[in-house]
Design goal:
By secondary structure, the chain is α+β, with helices and mostly antiparallel strands. It has one helix and six strands, in the order H-E-E-E-E-E-E. Strands 4-1-2-3-6-5 form a six-stranded mixed sheet.
Length: 115
Amino acid sequence: MKQSKVVFAVCILVLLVASGCKKEATAPASQAQPAADAVQADNSLSGKVVETMNSGGYTYVCLENSGKKTWVAVPETKVKVGQMVTCQPGGEMKNFTSKTLKRTFESIIFSGGIS
């Protein structure tokens, strides 16, 4: 379990460093990508909790906003299905496998917590 926390911390650190090193290309406004429904203009994640589980000191929350579901991992906290929450912005990982949950998430946002 301690090793899982270390691996998670290293993954977050790598994401933070990598996101700071990316060179952003500017596309014309007509080619700009629309933001995901669950990601607001202030980069917070919000929506209705449709599924949640705790494992390894983290809470995994599936948020639904305008019919789009987004998985977010936050430090362990109490949330209930049906609750409306807003999470702090975070880094996205594609095809993340949680060994403790024995589950792979197609896409998951690692957030600092619920605002």
